[in-house]
Amino acid sequence: MTATPVVLLHGFPLDHRMWDDVAAQLGRDRTVLAPDLPGPADALDAVGPTLDDAADRVAEAVRAAGVERAVVAGLSMGGYVALALLERHPELVAGLALVDTRSTADAPEARAKRLDVAARVEESGTVDAVRGMVDTVLGETTRTAHPEVVQRVAAWIDEQPPARVAWSQRAMAARTDRTEVLRRFTGPVVVVVGDEDEVTRVDAAEDLAKVAGGAPLVVVPRAGHLTAVEDPAAVATALVELAQRVDAGR
Questions:
Q1: Do residues 229 and 139 touch, judged by C-beta distance below 8 A?
Q2: Residues 6+ apart with CB under 8 A from 155
Q3: Integer Cα distance of 171 and 49 in angstroms
Q4: At how many degrees (to 10) do helices 108-124 and 162-173 cross?
Q5: Contact present, 6 and 26 (Cβ < 8 Å)
Q6: Domains in the chain and their CATH numbers?
Q7: For a designed S-S bond to 188, which of 14, 64, 152, 245 qualifies (C-beta 3.0 to 4.6 A apart)?
Q8: What global pTM score does this model have?
Q9: Residue 179 pLDDT more than 90?
Q10: Exposure string (b/e) for 29-49, b if CB count within 10 Å is 16 or more?
Q11: Local confidence band at 241 (pLDDT 50, 70, 90 cut-offs)
């Protein structure tokens, strides 16, 4: 039985490193790709800013690695890109893991907030406008009991290129509703969410699982919006089970 490759798409405002602990638990026999979105920071002017462009770049990177079919897992913004990839390059997506994410577009207020943050990041040339997100994306348990995780995520945010942060905010603000794209997908799906996620709550994940034809829903206890960082073992287990379903043709 061939081990289907896995593509891991990160959340905002982070990079591929947020998947490191999960990737280490996916098995040595399985190819794992974790690109930065939407690509090199010095090439941002050439694309977008739309998640379609990010998805196209992911498709290019996946094919360049010799992969023609993969399990695609996306957390938060990565989930938006995963759904864009499913719409634009469906032949690449053998299975789908939607982690702490949603299929809908932003409401007008949220869209305006993203554009404001993008403008402030560009004007200041810093990531000051998103540094406070460390308290939003991590669950209460993590913030209280695991200061080392808080410090790690805060450092990752500090290290993001401001141009990529602004690009990503504008791309997310412009995204379309891809609920019907998910509904039409016939491959295996798993939905994962932290029970302390205040960004995409459990009830939103329940709705997502229903759209995906009653897909399995994994609720990770004592984790917030960054389940892959807060409890990588739980997320890795969900991804391995999904990948094994794909391997077996189920």
A1: no
A2: none
A3: 5
A4: 160
A5: yes
A6: 6-105+176-247 (3.40.50.1820)
A7: 245
A8: 0.96
A9: yes
A10: ebbbbbbbbbbeeeebeebbb
A11: very high
